[in-house]
Amino acid sequence: ARSVILDMDPGIDDAAAIAVALNNPGLDVKLITTVAGNVSVDKTTVNALKLVNFFNKNVPVARGAAAPLKKRFEDAGAIHGESGLPGYDFPEPKSQISKLTAIDAIAHALTQSEKQLTLIATGAYTNIAQFILQYPELLSKIDELILMGGSISGGNATSVAEFNVFTDPDAAKIVFESGLNITMIGLDVTLKALISKQTSDRLAEFGEAGRMLHGIINAYGDVHEGGKPMHDVITVLYALHPEVIKLQKEHIDAVTDGPAIGATVADVLHRWYEKNDYNAEVGVDIDAAFFNDWFLKQVSRMSNR
Ligand code: BDR
Ligand code: CA
């Protein structure tokens, strides 16, 4: 199995990504760290614990940053509900939040592991940026950083900025300049793989986990023509099956001020950077029908016992 650390802001699509990652035998989730994003970090942390508890897994949850590095924090409660996890009545979690901070917990997990780990980040990159600054000696223990976020074709938070990068653009800049092996799963690909109403209606057929996902996805306010984007789930799909997403090598610059704040600019025409001077592989295409089938299959195999 591929060993992963999930850094997230659950959040409905984050919750679905956690559900898949905790239940697919191809992944070994070592740690979940939380960050302020869709809702406050207190709420994203409780939501992560609720999911770990729901699936009866023994995965530590460590709380991360409560606010972006510099920018004022703005949540997305309008899309993910006030709690960040509406639509299902979870029991109060039994397990405790880790005593370590998110960045110390990431450092601990990397130090403990003999092999390299994969980092999957589906919230603002505040924790990841702080980790990069505080533990540069541990970066070689990360084989790949898979990001949900950014876009090279228009935004969702503003006309040019995707929400995770928009939430903490200064963190995104540090991340893209870190030299880590980055795969950027942004809106270019997540908006091409909407979960159709037909698929989400069927989720309720699959036991308690299916009913939970059916409930939260029903309550999810990110509605597009043709369905709802399960942005964060695509990072988990990619970690398991990289071949199903078409990638393009780009040099990405995160814009940290002005009207384009939060944009991820790709130098597609190589006017600024040499062609081989790329810092990310950017997802640009995916088969939506495949994604829908795959997601249903994941949910049909989930067990919350
Ligand atoms: C991203 O923003 C969040 O609201 C979602 O959870 C996803 O990570 C999409 O832009
Ligand atoms: Ca998210």
TrEMBL record:
InterPro entries for this protein: Inosine/uridine_hydrolase_dom, IUNH, Ribo_hydro-like
Residues of the Inosine/uridine-preferring nucleoside hydrolase domain: 4-292
Assigned keywords, A-Z: Glycosidase, Hydrolase
Transport recorded as keyword: no
Hydrolase found in the keyword field: yes
GO cellular component: cytosol
GO BP term (any one): purine nucleoside catabolic process
Record GO terms (molecular function): purine nucleosidase activity
Domain of life: Bacteria
Coiled coil: none
Taxon lineage: Bacteria, Bacillati, Bacillota, Bacilli, Lactobacillales
The species this protein was found in: Liquorilactobacillus sucicola DSM 21376 = JCM 15457
Pfam family, one: IU_nuc_hydro
NCBIfam families on file: PRK10768.1
Protein name, entry field: Ribosylpyrimidine nucleosidase
